[in-house]
Amino acid sequence: MEFIIKYLWLMPTAPLLAAGIGALLHRRQRLLGAGLAIGAILFSFGLACVAFSTTLRGGRATSNFRWFEFGTTSVQLGWVLDPLGAIMAVMVTFVSLLVFVYSVGYMAKDENFTRFFCFLALFAAAMLGLIIANSLLLFFICWELVGLASYLLIGFWFQKPSAAAAAKKAFIVTRIGDLGFLLGILYLYGRAGTLLFYDGGHGCLERNANTGVMMGTTLIALLIFCGAVGKSGQIPLHVWLPDAMEGPTPVSALIHAATMVAAGVFLIARVYPLMTPESLQVVTWVGALTAVFAAAIAVAQNDIKRILAYSTVSQLGYMMMGLGTGGVSVGMFHLTTHACFKALLFMGAGSVIHGCHEEQDIRKMGGLSRRMPVTFMTYAIGMMALCGVPLFFSGFWSKDAILDAAHHWRFSQTPFYLGLVGAFLTAFYMTRQVVLVFFGRSTNQEAEHPRESPPVMTLPLVILAAGAMLLGFFGTPVWPWFQSYLAEDNAVFDFSKLTEGGQLGIMLLSTGLVAVAMMLSGWIYFKKAASADREKDPLETAQPALFALLQHKFYVDEIYEATVVRLTVAFAMFSDWLDRKFWGGLVRAVSWLTVALARLSQTVDETVVNGSFDAGTETVRDSGKWVSLLQNGQTQRYLGAIGLAFCGLLIFLLWGSQ
Amino acid sequence: MLTLLTFLPLAVGLFVALLGRDQQKLGRNLAFAASLLSLVLAVKLGLSFDHSLGMQFTERHPWMPSLGMEYYVAVDGLGLLTVLLSALIVPFAMLASWKIENNPKLYFAFMLFLESALFGTFTAQNFVHWFLFWELSLIPGFFLIRLWGGPKRTRAAFQVFVYMMVGSVAMLAAFLALFAVTKTFDFAQLASLAHRDGGLFLKHKMLVTAVFFGVFLGLAIKVPLVPFHTWLPTAYSEAPTGTVMILTGATSKMGVYGFLRILWPIFPEQIHAWRHLLLALAAATVVFPAAAALAQKDLKRMVAYSSINHLGYCMLGIFAAARLTDGSAVFSTDQAAALNGVILQLFNHGLTAAALFYFVGLIEQRGGALRGLNDFGGLRQAAPVFCGLMGIALFASLGLPGLNGFPGEFLIFKGALHLASLTTLLSIPGLLLTAIFLLTILQRVFSGPLPDQWRKWPDLTTTERLTVLPMLALIFVFGIFPQLLTGVANPAVMQMLKPF
Fold first, then answer.
1. B233 touches chain A (CB under 8 A)
2. Do B400 and A144 touch (CB under 8 A)?
3. Residue B73's beta-bridge partner residues?
4. Whole-angstrom Cα distance, residue A177 to residue A198?
5. Which of A68, A156, A577 is the best mutation test for B, with the most CBs of B within 10 A?
6. pLDDT (tens digit, 9 = 90+) per residue, A169-228?
7. B292 — contact with chain A (CB < 8 Å)?
């Protein structure tokens, strides 16, 4: 561990370098660009695995350094290696690696292929930086860079106005949350005097635990949670996530399923010691509401990626609920399993879209199970993992842990019931999707002859499918290895845990719900998939008003458009008016006043001052006329005058001598 | 050293201006060489700067001792950074104006005069001396706008000039009143007098308030602070690109510098007494221009408003930090944070804003005088490098961590949040509004379908890339290693916070 901590910084730096070099490459250096990015992430993956192996025995190592100084103190940054970060790093590098490889196939025909890998590498670098950060400030820096990378990737097809708008929306909406996060950081900084997480007993997370002094307050915790709400697409800042599906599908798999949105959950897990019980209640409620809210919307969507997007929002709600009710390990376990199967689903959806010539509407697809067998099999595994089909699928174990924790929550049982409703809806909409896409007949000419995707795309699917099944066994109640690893003690086999505290009952209950939902949905949609008219959803026929409400996502976008956006525009107009008319008007008024004053003084000058001056000059001129007679230039007169004067002088002198 | 630095551009500028009309190219090249030489001198100054000392490179000669006038130049960290910034911006702005057709020699000579005025202002430690250079900056600024500006140049130039003169007169009157009482024009002496018990004039509360507002007005117009800012959007949108780069990159920093060097140390009690009003103005300077930028349709006006908004953060930091230095530890850490942040912001905004205006100028040049937000679209397709590099400048301006804007804003907010919570909270929406309008520029100009009209839009040429490269490199360098700046700025801040 001492050894690896020295080189841990290489984990984000390698992809960062790849991104930097990639930015300088020419468009045509495709192989080099992709090779660099994949090589870098492979290196990071290796490093993450080594780091992970050193944390198996627990413990924590840090390395801090001074970033810059001010006053008599300095801002410190650093990195940390502990189980929480290590497992996250392995997960992120693993999923990223597969997404990178998959992208080689998916983006093969794109002219900005090289640029794409540059952005992907930047994204991975920022995400890894965030994971190893040992300072809330470094965390925030990487957090913002993740935002930048997502902005670039969502808007990757910038020629499409919708993609450009979605990218901007993602950045702005998450930034709203980030401003709260920043405020929380600043308050914490003022209170704790440091932003380092672990610093030999002086970090902002440690002092809290060791001395019992609460460094955090509910206000700080909630402000930090604002950041997580934005990034992880929780209510009310979830609106950007579904729009972000405008980006290429590998981006959706990477950013909007497995990693970026997981950053918010990871944030709460990382600063867990700062979370007060009151703030955890808020986290739980927000998570529970998001879980149901988004799942309900997903039922009425027709775009294959949007369904997955809302499912992501909903699952993130579960993770938040897990964090709020059960603690770090519960939330993190669902995060890990979800990363695996959601990446699988997104990449499977990408394979479907690719095969159907960029068709994304599930009503127009159909019968793909025969033509795309690998995609179908892997997709089905991902879908069952997401629905929580028992025993062999990871989602079952991790979702069950959350429901169990919610059941034992001492404040309220409502989140538990909300969680059950969410589970039911999840099974329903995923079955609907799979049935419509893979069974029945297609109605789209273009999508009628799909081909299976190349191995470079299907191989990652197979690997992820294996993960989606196997991962669950690391965190069952019988052998809670994952939970023990994060809590740094040894896991033991204990079958009796299964029946403790009603856990088995909850499992049976959720299994029953899932089974009912799948059968119901299958019954409705198998009929639909086989029929010729696939345009109208059976639910729409049955409940048009409710369906419209869900299809329009509870009109949240419209409400924001009518309130927040309109207010902002109005405020902008007001500020502009203030400048042009009010302040500008004041300035003009002053200038008119000045001009008026000048006119007045001109008048005064001309009548009073100049008048008397003119009179004065007239007098002078008149006397001048007389005086000028003395100087008229006639020599005779001068001589006469001189003679006259001479005579006068002579007389005077003679008079005087007497 | 400082004298050479200050008078070199002035002398070369005079020489260039007196060259024959047929020697335009020679004049231009000479002027550029002089600005490069100044840059070399400034960098040399920075390299031999001793971080442990306060004021250094001092040159002091009596001038008119009976009137308190002295030739007194020296720099501390604040002075050094502003000098370096000016020395960086001027050659950059000259390259941006390389293709000026109408009498380039004179244009470049005026730029050198402006540079000299900047150096003089940032190094002078005596009011009279300082004020001369402060005023000197007006004349070249006026002519650069009046002779080479856009269609409404006459009005813009006169407006700037009159505005500035009002401020200058107020400031001059205030300092004369100060001199009448204290018999000194020396900044340091005035500051130490102000910190003796009772302040500058023990008995004349009204007078000292009037004096304070006189100085304040002069500085506030220069920065500018809302509501004294209405000259700026017009001036910046009418001025030629190179000029506006200097105006926003360096000249506007004269105002902030004045606040730090003059108002903050000499009038601590008055700032403290009026801090609610001042903080309100600072918050208004952050929020209203950011919102107004959102309503603009002209790229230059947009970036001009963004410039006001960014300097608003400086004002916020300065006024928030202006509590009486009673030596309590917590507050002085926050004060140090805020003031360091202000200096960082001052420096980094200069770089970023100059780069942004450079790009907007290029857009205007390529678009055939079109520069509306909605006149373009999809340009990234035709000019990916252009878009990428301008994107860097935009994100730096937005305060993206990793680029130079972030450390300063972080420190300002860190300090200000604890010193003036309410104002800081009111200013926070400014950060969001800034992000919105900067991303709107990226969206409207560079994204979407490419209109046929702009299909042949040329990407950055090699010359243009080389021109902007140093600036962009510095944007990264100071974003990743802010210690390079705080290492210089912090001793100056500590000096300011030291009890007298």
1. yes
2. yes
3. B59, B124
4. 25
5. A68
6. 999 999 999 999 999 999 888 888 888 888 877 788 876 554 444 555 888 889 999 999
7. yes
From the number of C-beta atoms within 10 Å of its C-beta (0-12, 13-18, 19+), residue A556 rates as middle
Does residue B87 form part of some domain? no
CB B244 within 8 A of CB B323: no
With CA atoms as reference, report the closest residue to A198 among A91, A100, A76, A317: A76
Residue among A575, A591, A592, A594 with most chain B CBs within 10 A, to mutate: A575
Over residues B136-172, the pLDDT tens digits come to 988 998 999 999 988 888 888 888 888 888 889 999 9
Q: Tokens 């705080």 appear where?
A: B486
Q: Which residues contact A478 (CB under 8 A, 6 or more apart)?
A: A493, A494, A495, A497, A498
Alpha carbons A54 and B267: distance in angstroms, whole number: 59
**How does pLDDT run across A24-33, given as a tens digit for each residue?**
888 888 888 8
List pLDDT tens digits, range B271-289: 888 888 999 999 999 999 9
Give the span between the Cα atoms of A151 and A119, in whole angstroms: 10
B239-272 pLDDT per residue, tens = 999 999 999 999 999 999 999 999 888 888 888 8
Interchain CB distance below 8 Å, B401 and A569: no
What share of residues in chain B are helix, strand, coil (percent, to 5)? 75, 5, 20
B422 lies in some domain: yes
How confident is the model over B35-42, as a mean pLDDT? 94
Q: Does B283 touch chain A (CB under 8 A)?
A: no
Q: Which long-range contacts (CB under 8 A, 24 or more apart) does A536-542 make?
A: A537/A300, A537/A302, A539/A299, A539/A300, A540/A300
Contacts of A560 in chain B (CB under 8 A): none
Any CB–CB contact under 8 A between A413 and chain B? no
Instruction: Give residue B438's domain range.
Output: 274-500
**Chain A residues with beta carbon closer than 8 angstroms to that of B449:** 159, 161
Q: Which residues contact A278 (CB under 8 A, 6 or more apart)?
A: A218, A221
Residue A75 φ then ψ, to 5°: -90, 125
Is residue A324 within 8 Å of A287, Cβ to Cβ? yes
Within-domain flag for B155? no
The rounded distance, in Å, linking the Cα atoms of A323 and A405 is 9
* Nearest-10 crossing angle of helices A113-132, A136-154: 160
Residue found under tokens 């007993």: A201
Tokens in use for A127?
A: 């995400």
Check CB contact under 8 Å for B494 and A71. yes
- At residue A27, what is the residue type? R
Transcribe A370-431 into DSSP letters.
HH-HHHHHHHHHHHHHHHT-TTTSHHHHHHHHHHHHHHT-SS-SHHHHHHHHHHHHHHHHHH
Chain A residue closest to B395 (CA)?
A: A148
Record: contact B401-A190, CB cut-off 8 A: no
* Collapsed DSSP state (helix, strand, coil) of residue B350: helix
Identify the residue among A27, A70, A576, A588 best suited for mutation to test binding to B, counting B beta carbons within 10 A and taking the highest: A70
- The structural domain count of chain B equals 1
Tokens of B250: 């360096």
Q: How far apart are CA A419 and CA A437, in angstroms?
A: 27
Q: How far apart are the first and last CA of chain A?
A: 134
Q: Which residue of B has its CA nearest to A155?
A: B447
Provide the residue type at B218 as one letter.
G
Determine the Cα–Cα distance for residues B350 and A142; give it in Å rounded to an integer. 25
Whether residue B126 is contained in a domain is answered as no
Q: How near does any CA of chain A get to the CA of B336, in Å? A: 5
**CA–CA separation, B385 and B387 (whole Å):** 5
